[in-house]
Amino acid sequence: MIDPIPTELDSRQIVFQPLYVPFASAIGVAFVLALFIWNYPSPNDPIGQKFVNVPEFWIWVFELGVMSAFLTVVFGPLWKQFVNLLKEQISNRDTTRKLGIGVMLLLGIAIYLALGSSIYWVVPSNPIRLVVLPQGHHQRVMIIYGYALLTMLPLIASTLLVYKSILDKTRQIQPAGQDRAKLFGMAADLLRYRRLLQNYLLIAGIVVSIVPVATASLRSILIAIGNVTEKDYPINIVMIYGLFFTAILILFYVPTHLLLTDSSRKLRDRLCPIDSLPTLEESLQKRKALDDWLETNIGLTQNLKAGIIALAPLVSSFVASVLGIQ
């Protein structure tokens, strides 16, 4: 099991646990404020002076601060959970299987980093590449988005490990035969993986939702100071950002969810097979109870609705377009 709940809290937990979220959030906000207050803009930078003197600038900084606060809150727990999942996967494995897990993680992380960093170059008409920005602006933004990529990294890697764990459980269902103790132990594990996936969906959705919103705010600043026009920087660009990051999220989440549903159904069939017509009604009732417990009756669309925030990048971009946010 991962992160078992302690029966008693030690003194450090009693003191620091209630303060963790506000303290971590404050650090995240302070990080962004330090980037955009200390030596920003440079006194001899006319573009920078105009940039910070429009109301939209502080809206943009606020949005980045919210993202940074959330990243700081989840950073440690996500990395800790990844380490625990990795230990669970490689324990009692031979060298070949450990190597296979390592290759899977490296390939997945490489794909994630390539997709996450390529949005700047993928959009052919990305006007940010053509605009004169305040001195040091690009470097500061890259630090923030690099922090976001680093925080999401253990989430993506953990999703891959959850996929591998579910695959292992699926292979164990048939050999378990009628050993109900083993089968119910597998069911508990599958439920744990489902909770992890839902948590990852929510966390990733919150993070990537802020990206297009902040992009829309940056667009507003550039239009306000006259660096670009609405025609040069159409709102469609912001919507493309929303679609792009949502696609990355779904790319890693959907296969794992589908495998989990298939594995849960196989486990249900093993626990309660339909093998007799006279007992069909009773078997169907038991299977329905198992479906409710294992949540196999919750489809992919419903699962995404449960973590509806994952679709917020597209939704927020659309709302910004409809409301005429510049």
Can you give the helix content as a percent range? Answer: over 70%
Please summarize the sheet with the most strands.
none
Please give the oligomerization state of what you see.
single chain
The parts where pLDDT drops under 50 for at least 5 residues are 1-7, 317-326
SS summary, helix count:
10
The average pLDDT is 80
Name the overall outline.
Answer: elongated
Span from first to last CA?
A: 49 Å
Total domain modules: 1
Number of strands: 0
Instruction: Note the beta-strand portion.
Output: under 5%
Structural class: mainly alpha
Gyration radius, in Å: 24 Å
Order of helices and strands, N to C?
HHHHHHHHHH
What does this structure look like?
The chain has 326 residues and is mostly helical. Residues 1-7 and 317-326 have low confidence and may be disordered. The chain has one domain. The chain has helices at 11-37, 46-52, 55-90, 95-122, 137-176, 180-224, 235-271, 280-294, 300-306, 312-322. Helix 4 packs antiparallel against helix 5. It is elongated, with a radius of gyration of 24 Å.
List keywords for this structure.
single chain; 326 residues; mainly alpha; elongated; disordered N terminus
Brief sketch in words of this structure:
This protein has 326 residues and is mainly alpha-helical.
SSE layout and pairing:
Elements: H1 11-37, H2 46-52, H3 55-90, H4 95-122, H5 137-176, H6 180-224, H7 235-271, H8 280-294, H9 300-306, H10 312-322
Helix pairs in contact: 1-3, 3-5, 3-6, 4-5, 4-7, 5-6, 5-7, 6-7, 6-10, 7-8, 7-10
